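Onboarding guide, step 5: your first structure request.
Type a short instruction followed by the sequence, for example:

Predict the 3D structure of this protein.
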Amino acid sequence: MADVDTHVPGAFCWPELATTDQKGAVAFYKTLFGWDLNEQPIGGGETYSMFQMRDRPIGAAYTMRPEERQQGVPPHWGSYVAVKNADDSAKRAQELGGKIVAPAFDVMDSGRMAVIQDPTGAVFCVWQAAKHAGARIIGEPGALCWTELATRDTKAAEKFYTGLFGWTPKHSPPGAGMEYTEFSVGGTPSVGMMPMPEEVPAFVPAHWTPYFMVADVDASAAKAASLGGKLTVPPMDIPNTGRFSMISDPQGAMFAIFAPKK
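The system replies with structure tokens like these:
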């Protein structure tokens, strides 16, 4: 995959960073991934930092709202799923046991979105595109290539997401050493789910993590560390698949990097 102009309904289409230090975070990711920047004024002296490659948007960053910080929400990467109709998807999510964090609303002339919490606690957004389709590059170095859910109830999460988006699940075989579910969207595997590791503190809710593709995981992980990031999972192999590392940026937002097996 590479350049995309539209996203099939049910596909993750936009990674968005909510951070406490927009300038610092933008500098970190620009240096790490070589992203270009397109600052969009959003009023009140604030900007929406649009990350780009080849003049095509691939993600964004914004400063967290004071109310989010007061609620104890940490810096994080938010994940958007493309849908035909944000209102209908929010209603369906509620019927399936999800909670509406923010009912559907228009984002100027870019599109319409809703914020939803799944029954296991993970928050995500649905996106009904108008002028803004989402990421215009997928699955190449520097771009989003995978989105993964860590949850304490994989069965409930699978029931919810397959019911909401029609994803096709594929479970790791018995004796695989690790329980993992891969979901396909329109026949393309692009979503993963795993049980929350036991060592993760109970106060950490279920969450989605974006994976960005890189050419060399070890080199990118070392670069992230030199820029102030923390390697929460050092570079390691995924048998027959590739190599990855999980990283916490200098403000604490989690993301992963991945290089497919050559």
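Each response can be followed by summary notes, for example: Helices lie at 22-33, 66-70, 86-95, 154-165, 217-226.
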